[in-house]
Amino acid sequence: MSIRVVVAAREALQREHLRGVLEDDGVQVAFEAVDAAELVVLAQLERPDAAVISAEPALFDAPRALVELKSAFPDLPVVVVSSQAGERPISKALRNGAVAYVYADQVHILPCAGRAAAAGLTVVPADVRRHAVAPAFSHRERQVLDLAVQGHTNTQIARQLFLAESTVKSHLSACFRKLGVSSRAEAAAALTPA
After folding, report:
1. Can you list the domains of the chain with their CATH numbers?
2. Backbone angles phi, psi at 102, to 5 degrees
3. Residue 116: what pLDDT?
4. Contact predicate 134/92, CB 8 Å
5. pLDDT tens by residue, 65-108
6. If you compute the radius of gyration of the chain from its CA atoms, what whole number of angstroms results?
7. Torsion on CA atoms 139, 140, 141, 145, rounded to nearest 10
8. Are 131 and 92 in contact (CB under 8 A)?
9. Is 0.70 topped by the overall pTM?
């Protein structure tokens, strides 16, 4: 699949490196940008299939710039390249509009990640896959969880939603399991955009 991407990185050497990796695998680079503002302006002219942005060193004062980019181009798939590993930065990038996350020391997979993102897929490193994608909650689980993180007790939630207290506990247990947490405080932290 042939795609056209835009590359954004603050440092010229980083832009050149990303361009080389992409073009060596047949991905066309429409243009390069040095910051979010330039990327938004140029993307309006070029209409790329995807954007590849380097988060080194904090090019996209994330999440502000990702949000800015996604508000200007809600359908533009964004691939973030970063040396920040782990669940938290990846989840943060995904919550704020990225659809793919590639570790800086694994840029050899960037062309594949770009094509997958342009095809509508989400790409994350295998070591955080089960944590990086937001869990799906039923309508009732979401209601119970929202009230719990607002500080309501199980009794108050049961009364407000006309449920048995044991049902509230059951919904909270399911929510905690899906989030990979064990308390209301951890759930609130996991649900709060960083």
Report:
1. 4-132 (3.40.50.2300), 139-191 (1.10.10.10)
2. -125, 130
3. 94
4. no
5. 667 777 788 888 999 998 887 777 787 777 777 889 999 999 99
6. 20
7. 100
8. no
9. no
